Amino acid sequence: MRRTTFLTLLAFLLLAGGVVCLMQKARVLALGGDSDTSLYAGAALLMLAATSALFALTMLRRSCITLEKRLEKSISRGKLEQVIASDIQAQSLVGAINDVMDFADRSVTESAMKLKEIEIQLKVATGRRQHAEAILYSISDAVLVTDQFDELVLANEAAARIFGFDLEEATRKPMASVIADTTMVQLINDMRQSGSTNGRRIVEHQIKGPGSSPMTFKATLSCVSDRADQPAGVVAVLHDMTKEKEVAEMKNDFVSNVSHELRTPLASIKAYVEMLIDGEADDERTKREFYDIIQSEANRLGRLIDNILNISRIESGLVKVNKQPQSLTVILKEAIEVITPQAKMKKIEIVEQLTPVFYQTQADKDMLYQAVLNLLSNSVKYTPESGRITVQTLVDESKRKVIARISDTGVGIPPKDLPFVFDKFYRAEANNRMAKGTGLGLSLVKHIIETVHHGRIFVESQVNKGSTFGFEIELI
Amino acid sequence: MQETKTILVADDESHILNVVSLKLRNAGFRVVTAADGQEAFDLAHQEKPDLLITDYHMPQLSGLELCQKLKHDPQTCSIKAIMLTARGYHLEPTDTEQSGILRMLSKPFSPRQLLATVNEVLQLAA
Prior knowledge:
The complex is a heterodimer.
Chain A: H1 2-31, H2 37-76, H3 88-138, E1 142-147, E2 152-155, H4 157-163, H5 167-170, H6 175-178, H7 182-194, E3 200-208, E4 214-225, E5 231-240, H8 242-277, H9 284-316, E6 323-327, H10 328-345, E7 349-353, E8 360-364, H11 365-382, E9 388-396, E10 401-408, H12 441-452, E11 456-462, E12 466-474
Parallel strand pairs in A: 7-9
Antiparallel strand pairs in A: 1-2, 1-5, 3-4, 4-5, 6-8, 9-10, 10-12, 11-12
Chain B: E1 6-10, H1 14-26, E2 30-34, H2 37-47, E3 51-55, H3 63-72, E4 80-85, H4 93-99, E5 101-106, H5 111-125
Parallel strand pairs in B: 1-2, 1-3, 3-4, 4-5
Helix pairs in contact in B: 1-5, 2-3
């Protein structure tokens, strides 16, 4: 570097000497003199100055190339070192470059740190989103999220299932092109346009389900606001209330039926008591008749309450079941003994075709007895005088099952009523006049056989020929 | 001497049918009874009663259907009715126009109150 400096200085000195010589020649010519010494000297000095300058430039260029190579090497190593320049002329340049490189180095480091920070933030945000999506997908309620352009931003599987769209294809598409339910689209539109960022709207919304029956939803719509508190979209959550509605209706029907069934015997009791008080029964025989009616209707009321409670206990699983090895034949014999006086009054013959008592089932004796007695009592009620009731048990050894059949020669059940005879409060209208019932007896029998003993109940019937009620339960 | 009024009573519950009949007979009315809606409809044409007392829930034809059918038939349209119900049915103003039901009594009811209502409705009709 020093050589370049020296040659540069020399070039400046020679340039100055040359210029002085030429100025001297010019002054001589101006004064009218004529000497070529100064001209030649000047020219020679200028040429020397040019040569020195050329050398200096060549050396400076070489220094720059060396410097450039060192820089490239440093950069390719990924580590910016201080480049020591030996040339004075290049010193400032190198200094500036080093400053720039220091700055660039700092910037790159800072940028790398910021990038790392952003990557972490992105990971956190992605994690949060995935977490939110996992929550969204795991909930049974349908969730739809739309943006300010009414495009579907987010939805869960429940929503896709209810509205019948493909979850992956639907995202970022206009909501109206994805959801065929125009009422729902309108509700979301209205909510977004209302611009209410702090309110929410709850509406009952019906959607035609996969079957023919409509499904009822409670739709909760709320606006999502951006950072500037401006409406940025809508979140719609749909809670399926179909089952709840059905349960509420069933409960309502049950209460209505129970109330009707309770009021009927109560109406008789109240009316006959009042008649007795008012002295409307003027002879002893009529009074006796009234007392009997009051007693039988009070019994009916008691039976009804017992049946309701028993069914309710079995349905809710609160009933205490005491299962022990029992013979169905023994239970049937006991029930037949109890029902025989009633059958005799109507001259009904009871025929027993029972299997030996050693076939045992795991059963709650009281409950099974109650079920069998109910079936026998029905047979006696719906069989006209001089009829016949056949009580039969059959053992299926291969299936380890015992089947009980109680067949009568009674009025039978019309085919339209047959599928419903085990429903609560269902009574075949045609047979209503034949006997009074609570409409709960067969429902209780079904519960005892199927819910408590995991068996199967069945009915076969022909109008005016008779009915067969039966059940099968497992042998031990 | 005042003419004996005929009352048709329809109920599928025999005890109720008997107690209402006895109360009304003791009060001097002529009573005819039916155990279901269809039988009541036929008896209404046959007997031309001054008043019908019917249960709401009956086989064949419900009490309301019975009253509506009678109201639409020129032969029986003038028969006024009292309905007994264990279902908590409420009487709407249109029911009177379309079915001729003037009063509604809930089960359990008082025979005394029923008799008072019968007299009231018969007076209204007169």
